[in-house]
């Protein structure tokens, strides 16, 4: 983003960036993007060949293949920290539905509190809501006061305290003395605050490890000349990041097995232990991270710029110092023209985020109602809450396939680059398929003996016998949701990072995460509909809503695919200056094989 105080000198530890080939920032009328991929490699005339390391010419941008740069080791360290945090988060939330829904006398599945499906789903949605509101707190603390890394460390300690409360109150003695419910509410509140402070900061922190902001020409070992594109590098970083998230989420396999075989206390001590390991990795690797210092009241400055635009019929150009000078007004602002352009770009991202609550309502069914649905089916000796792990396993398998095979194949053979807006719309469509399949499964359950439309009802065989439907029938629903995440969730994080001003990466990321909180709030209201014999209509409505939302979203915003590169170019010089170097400048993972593939 543009420096909000143009008189402040660049910090001494910032990266020294060459000013050769400086490109002029485009105005808002020329906002344009989408990496244009060529079908083939065309030879460039000898007198126009750019040497390796130089910025490509316009002709080279049109003809040379665009590839990812090397991924820094520091980015992988951060990904490991996120893996441990997600292991803890999904490991503890995996048994939540059974812990809340069933009473302490239930054995298959186990239980503790006995709130029933509707009550358990409502409390689960409260937890989701809180976890995605608190990122705003973490973002403000990081962007204005102490920076991303320090914020993550502080909120990680809060997270550990919440995990400890959950473990202690899940011990049999606590459950028998009525401590499970109040302990769970306290733990959810503390854990939600901790994970929120981490969420809004760790995803922009991992992308900031990529120091390059400009395209450059390189020659592969095969002799092919390519363009190393920072946009492709950021895309790949978030693919790796999301892959680690889903590897970590497999922790639910271990915790649900411990829940069934040992008890809830054993299921919750494992996430506590894993998170402590991740915290140690975070602290021990702190000297390797690329970090940037906070810029004081930057969020308040941003709101001042937006307020000026709102007062002037949403014309944010009026907030530009150059605009005021052209009118003869000698007004001293704390920002420059570039910052205003960055704020206009940020508003584009916020419009995109407005559609995400519909997507996340679909996604969250996997965390509660899908688990309850499995509990009414024949499990054949497995925990009902283990089925949700089909989702991360699918993500782990298909992220490399889509990233390294499908996308490159489409670019090479057909010249098709699936740009951000299109990827998000596809995510909505896959989520719709997942909800449609869940509706079909629920219909099959309602038409199967012995309890038909009231499965495991106390009036039907004492509520101990499930309907005769194998739980494996659920599998396609988890598959579709997983594929939707690769398109919608990964791209959403990438969009939040690339469209945010450099000093507001955490805050804009928190705006993206806020969509999840909105969906959880809506989910609390919808939890009343999670009752037999009408649950299939809930899934049907969500399937239709997600499909329509995806279509409308694409129709309204697909033009931003063509303005991607121009939007990303705004504030590029300031972003180069803002990054401080890690302790080892050349500390990278050699990903030349990635270049060869892509």
Automatic annotation (TrEMBL):
Topology relative to the membrane: Multi-pass membrane protein
Task: Give me the stretches of Polar residues compositional bias.
Answer: 1-16
What PROSITE patterns does the record point to? Answer: PTR2_1, PTR2_2
Q: Name one Pfam family in it.
A: PTR2
Question: Which top-rank group of organisms is this from?
Answer: Eukaryota
Membrane-spanning ranges:
152-173, 179-198, 237-256, 262-284, 353-372, 392-410, 422-445, 477-497, 509-530, 536-557
The Basic and acidic residues compositionally biased stretches are 573-591
**Main localization (coarse):** membrane
Which key words tag this protein in UniProt?
Membrane, Transmembrane, Transmembrane helix, Transport
State the family named in the UniProt similarity comment for this chain: Belongs to the major facilitator superfamily. Proton-dependent oligopeptide transporter (POT/PTR) (TC 2.A.17) family.
Q: What is this protein called?
A: Oligopeptide transporter
Q: Which organism is it from?
A: Ascosphaera apis ARSEF 7405
